[in-house]
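Predict structure. Chain length: 379.
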Amino acid sequence: MNDHTNEHAARRLAEARLLFDADRLTLARRLRGMRKNQLAQAVGTTPTAIGQYEAGVHRPSEKTLSRLAFALGVPVEFFRAGRGHVSLDTAHFRSLRSTTQIERDQALAHGRIAADIVTALEALVELPRAELPERPVSPEEIAGPGPVEAARLAREAMVGDAGPIPHLVRLLEKHGVIVLVLPPSTERVDAFSIGAHPRPMVLFNPAKGDYWRNRFDGAHELGHLVMHADAEPGSKIIEDQAHRFAAEFLMPEAAIADRLPRTADWACLADLKSAWGVSMSALLYRARSLGIMKESTYRNAMSVMSARGWRRSEPGPAKPLERPTMLTRAVELVAGSGTGRDELADRAGVTRADLDLLVPGRSLADPASGISRRPLGST
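Prediction complete.
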């Protein structure tokens, strides 16, 4: 390393310390799934000191800042003020008891990084407008019509008919929702949604490799975005509301009620599963909830599914998961205009590795992107 390189590195470090943003340190630590004591041990300081850095009480020395960057796998510039601050206030996790706070913090940190990537992309390309209907439902409404009415409103606005939805992820992206598959490190966190501004997000669990479950998860999270902008996340009531929304959104009563069997007709259920993109379990539950199938018949059917191992793996050919492509196509478009992944990561204030993790490349072209290059000089 020559003197010029050393001088440049020293200047970068001095600038990063001078412009140190405490929130960026917290973001980096959560992104790596580390506790304060773990980070303190990695850099040779105390948890109290880390807490003071994150609270903005003290600023780390240049030596400590360099160690923090190394331990967290980010460049020192990551900690500079002036990076994006996207609100992720309303995140709807399925169960607050099934995951730890550090796991939820890590998943949210990935959402924050993705939001910064989107902000950088939107300076260069036109993404589809974020257009979701709003139909607030009271978090105290236990058995009212709100979720079903919200699902019907969403169907009318987003789909336009009552037939099967061929590709749910593509539908979400078409309406401006950022859809991501979380990294493997967050596999204990179920699918969740974030009412971020200006763009909502839906984040899928990478370990749940079930096509039918993923589609229902996506509709469930859409329900939160449509109904629960101000609701306190995690309650059993609003989770049930999102479940009812998803059932009506994917299996509209007006279109499917006459087709649902009154008995456990497995051939009929298999055909409906293939046509509507929902599991046999979901179809059985739908038949029961609409009063088409008796409670005793439903229970017997589920017992048969359990005995045959179908609760874990239903019969029939496997299908690949619906994968998001909007951000990948946007990254490819800006690369074609001369802004490669390294420069894009720098613009977003994220590492290249984190960009590649959240927005991987794709092997098959899909021209139906709804994305266009932003004219030079536009805002």
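Summary: The CA atoms of residues 192 and 198 lie 18 Å apart.
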